[in-house]
Amino acid sequence: MACDITSHKMHMCALKAEGCSDEVASLSASPTVKCGNCGALANSPDNVCNPVPLK
Question: What domain of life (predicted)?
């Protein structure tokens, strides 16, 4: 899956870079995927650039 500029602002890497630690914590409280690029964990595949299901 390609990451597009309009959705990237809500991805974990962008949120971390902006210092949105509360939002990052909320969006990763019960992770189901990780980013294949940076390894960030997220509850939803919508919040990472390259979602890979957790095993």
Answer: Bacteria
Closest to 37 (Cα-Cα) out of 26, 47, 28 = 47
* Phi, psi (degrees; rounded to nearest 5) at 34: -130, 160
Count of CB atoms situated within 10 Å of the CB of 51: 18
Q: Name residues whose C-beta falls within 8 Å of residue 12's C-beta, 6 or more positions apart in sequence.
A: 24, 27, 28, 35, 38, 40, 41, 42, 47, 48
DSSP state of 24: H
Tokens 């390609």 belong to residue: 2
Residue 50's Cβ-side half-sphere holds a number of Cα atoms within 13 Å equal to 6
Q: Is the whole model's pTM more than 0.90, yes or no? A: no
pLDDT at residue number 23: 96
